[in-house]
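Case study 2.
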Amino acid sequence: MKKILFSISMLLCCGFVHAQTIKTTTGNTRFSVSSDGVIRNGLTNTVGYIKSDGTIENANYQVIGFVRSDRIEDRNNSTIGYVKKDGTIEDRNYSVIGYIKNDGTVQDRNHSNIGSASGIKKEWAALICFFFEF
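Prediction:
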């Protein structure tokens, strides 16, 4: 669950204009997102893409979901998670799974710090969690 939240949180913090990273609490890069929407695990292997319209594709360019302003959907448009304006991340049943603070700190549901995702939209961080951490 922490890995999922961490990934989701990484994509959602702010806007981005250049490559941004999602880091563990020890400072290791877990994911990076380039200015053109390429998602990499670490800094090298491409695992997916975020299109400007919110479409999420895997490394083979197959649509796997969508990022909306307040939620994450699977490829069938079923909601799988929510991102609240205050940074609270919820699963499809509205159970809190974590938080993304304004400074980019990512916390689990118990408010324990599990990483950071500054400079990335909160919705995108959530997306990474739901689609690329499993």
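DSSP finds two helices and 13 strands in the chain.
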